[in-house]
Amino acid sequence: MYFDDKIPIYYQIKNHIYHEIITGALQPGEKLPSVRQLAVDVTANVNTVQRALSEMIAAGIIESKRGRGNFVTMETTKITDLKTQLVTTQLAHVYQQLHALNLSDEEILASVQHYIERKGQAK
Amino acid sequence: MYFDDKIPIYYQIKNHIYHEIITGALQPGEKLPSVRQLAVDVTANVNTVQRALSEMIAAGIIESKRGRGNFVTMETTKITDLKTQLVTTQLAHVYQQLHALNLSDEEILASVQHYIERKGQAK
DNA sequence: CCTAGTGTTATATTTTACTATTACACTATA
DNA sequence: TATAGTGTAATAGTAAAATATAACACTAGG
């Protein structure tokens, strides 16, 4: 797994798993790979994976059953809430950043539209 | 200055100064505060500030004159290029993140529009 | 020429994330 | 009941960022 060296690995693992849950790659109630397997999958240490999982458990998205495994919550409202929260966080961040670069609301919207239209193309 | 503990301080300082240059708070050719003063301003160490400055110098945005100070480049094209680059980086990041949450191009655009319309308001 | 202010660099120390390794607690099942 | 697989936690070590502090190199101005 690719890691951005500017951001803690445990944080990136957490985000990665959240994405899998939100996109349905991991279904509600589904068992996650074991912590040891996850560590191999993402090429990180068990403790680092555990740290990521601990935060997701504290957030109620993952349920931990000792001796059995970790499971995605069955409460789908928690998952939809998580998605809303992640999307909003991303929007707030990019808005704040672009606004700090003196782009007006209109320019921000236009720049996003422009980016989507031109993405993947040579300039 | 507020620091996000998930991102290296030197990196945040660099970004902060870039924003000041792009918004014109620091004009082309203008002298920056001394590294020692900057360290006080942003509540960080001189070496940390210097690391941020070194990268900006390497990028050609800041010119260093030993014994005199650090100065914003007079080449305004470098500044506009920097702005373009920062904006594009932000757009690419948020697009990738939202796309990874299974939002379509249309949904991404709509969510940005929606965010701008509703920002600062209760839900 | 001297001094104050500037950028630059170096050393030692602290802090934190991460790793490697081991051990412990629990569950299911053969 | 023994064993393999699971989560959990502790210990010790490594690496990188950040700090405190000091020194060095240069410039401008008195």
From TrEMBL, chains A, B:
Keywords: DNA-binding, Transcription, Transcription regulation. It comes from the Bacteria. The keyword Transcription regulation applies. PROSITE patterns: HTH_GNTR. InterPro entries: Tscrpt_reg_HTH_GntR (IPR000524), WH-like_DNA-bd_sf (IPR036388), WH_DNA-bd_sf (IPR036390). Residues 7-75 form the HTH gntR-type domain. This is GntR family transcriptional regulator. It comes from Levilactobacillus fuyuanensis.
